[in-house]
Each structure stands twice: as C-alpha cells, then as structure tokens.
Design goal:
Helix content is about 55%, strand content about 0%. With about 130 residues, the chain is mostly helical. The chain has helices at about 1-20, 25-45, 50-55, 70-85, 95-110.
C-alpha cells in the first residue's frame, strides 16, 4: 500500500516540476520579449483591414533594446499614437493595446531595468529598418 502512495506522489509531483520554469524571466529577457512583441504588433497593424488606413503614415517601429536611441524612439511613437485619437482607428482595441504595451516597455526600461540594460550601439537611423539580431 505504501508503494502505491509513493508512486502516486511521484506521478503527481514530476509533471509539476517539469512544467515549472527553472529560471524566472529577468528584466532583460522581459524587455527583449516585449520589444519583439511590439515590433510584430505594429507590423500587423499596418497591414490590418481596420487599422491600415490610419497607421499607414506612421513610421516603422523596429525596437532594439541594445540601441541607446530606443527610449527616444518609444517616447516619440507613444506621442504619435496619442495623436491618432483624431482618427477613428485610434479607438480600436489593437491600437490601444499597442500604445499600452509600448508605454509599459518604456516604464520597464526606464525605471525597473535601469541598471540591468546595457546599450551597445548609438545609431538612431538603425531603428528605422528591420533588425534581426535576435
């Protein structure tokens, strides 16, 4: 009987241990993941049916958290998204999600990860074109 209890215990603990992430996400990995997500989200909004017409004039957003100009670029893009309120697509859920997520990344990089991030390049023009480093 005790063997069955031990076997049941092992069979219930092993899946929990395997599903638990061994390393919690660091500030750097969170910022990197959010930057990728925002870049993809912006590209999808540009080709979207509901949002393509008013996002067409927006500059491309290619976030590289290793570039020192990324904070300026995010702040400028947040301002542009706030100015979209004059247009109808600014009130769509996707555009609002992009603005909120971009603002969250800006706060995370500026306040929470301030000492963890290292900017390896200072090239503002590089943020205008796709970046495939990661």
């Amino acid at each position: 009987m005790s063997i069955m209890k031990k076997l049941l215990l092992v069979l219930s603990v092993v899946p929990m241990a395997l599903s638990y992430p061994f390393f919690p996400p660091t500030c750097y990995s969170k910022a990197l993941r959010m930057a990728r997500e925002i870049t993809q989200m912006e590209a999808d909004l540009k080709i979207g049916y509901e949002t393509g017409h008013c996002m067409a004039h927006m500059p491309d957003l290619h976030l590289d958290i290793h570039n020192a100009c990324v904070m300026y670029k995010m702040r400028a893009y947040i301002s542009l998204l706030e100015d979209l309120r004059l247009r109808r697509c600014a009130y769509t859920r996707e555009v609002r999600k992009l603005e909120v997520t971009l603002r969250q990344l800006f706060i995370i990089m500026g306040q929470k990860c301030h000492g963890d991030l290292v900017f390896t390049i200072y090239d503002c023009a590089a943020l205008e074109r796709p970046y495939n480093r990661y």
